[in-house]
Structure formats: C-alpha cells, structure tokens
C-alpha cells in the first residue's frame, strides 16, 4: 500500500458516544462474554457494518445517481 492511501485510511478524527449506566453495563457484559478486549475496534466495526448494510439496502433508488464511496476521495 502506498503512503498516499495510508494517509487516507489513517484514523485521525475522534468522536464520543454517551451511554447511560444500563447501556454501558450491557456493553461490558457483552464484551466480557465474547472476550472482546478492544472495545474501540468492536464499536467502530459494529457501527460501520450497520452503515454499509444500510447503504446496500438503500441502493439503488430511482433518483440517486451515484453510490456513496466512503474510502476514496474524488
């Protein structure tokens, strides 16, 4: 992989998610049960899986001309 592609895929943007106590307990229980050590990776993959699944379900539509491309800038 060349350096230019590496730069585009580098994770440099941070975001935060707030959970209530019950949600956090459920996440912790899930991670413990399934031996998930890296919660950040788990949440990122879970969120991106849902997003990509929805993009696939929503595409194509009659009035959209271009499929979203998340990984390569135009």
Walk me through this protein's architecture.
With 74 residues, the protein is mainly α. It has a domain at 20-64. Helix content is 54%, strand content 0%. The chain contains 3 helices and no strands. The two termini are 19 Å apart.
Produce a short descriptive summary.
The protein is an all-alpha fold and 74 residues long.
Distance between the termini: 19 Å
Beta-strand fraction estimate: under 5%
- Element order: H for helix, E for strand: HHH
Coarse structural class: mainly alpha
Helix content: 40-55%
Integer-rounded radius of gyration: 17 Å
Oligomer: single chain
Average pLDDT for all residues = 84
Which blocks of ≥5 consecutive residues have pLDDT under 50?
Answer: none
Number of strands: 0
Please give the count of helices. 3
Overall 3D geometry?
A: extended
Q: Biggest sheet, in brief?
A: none
Write the layout of secondary structure elements.
Elements: H1 3-9, H2 21-33, H3 39-58
Question: Which properties best describe this structure?
Answer:
mainly alpha, 74 residues
